[in-house]
Amino acid sequence: MKTKNIFDSLPAICAPKTTDLRDELDRYLSTDPEHTDNVLLWWAEQRGLYSRLSRMALDYLSIPGMSVYV
């Protein structure tokens, strides 16, 4: 039996439903590509439409670049 605590029902901590993630991804993939000069700004502006994808994209795109000299 899985025990429950008061934190299990908090939306920020609960894992999203697979269908919610799939719907958001399907919606994003069904849109036409658009040109943007600032992808970080674009994803920040899309937060309302793609809440989970925008969070992931902002995390991924804000990783500093690294140069390796060989």
**How much of the polypeptide forms β-strand, as a percent range?**
under 5%
**Distinct helical segment count:** 3
What low-confidence regions span 5 or more consecutive residues with pLDDT below 50? Answer: none
Radius of gyration: 17 Å
End-to-end separation in angstroms reads 55 Å
- Sheet with the most strands, sense and barrel status: none
* Overall pLDDT confidence: 81
N-to-C series of helices and strands: HHH
Which terms summarize this structure?
70 residues; 0% strand; mainly alpha
Would you give an account of this structure?
The radius of gyration is 17 Å and the shape is extended. The protein has a domain at 37-70. The chain has 70 residues and is mainly α. It is 43% helix and 0% strand.
Quick overview of this protein structure:
This protein has 70 residues and is an all-alpha fold. Helix content is 43%, strand content 0%. The mean pLDDT is 81.
SSE order and pairing:
Layout: H1 18-29, H2 39-45, H3 51-61
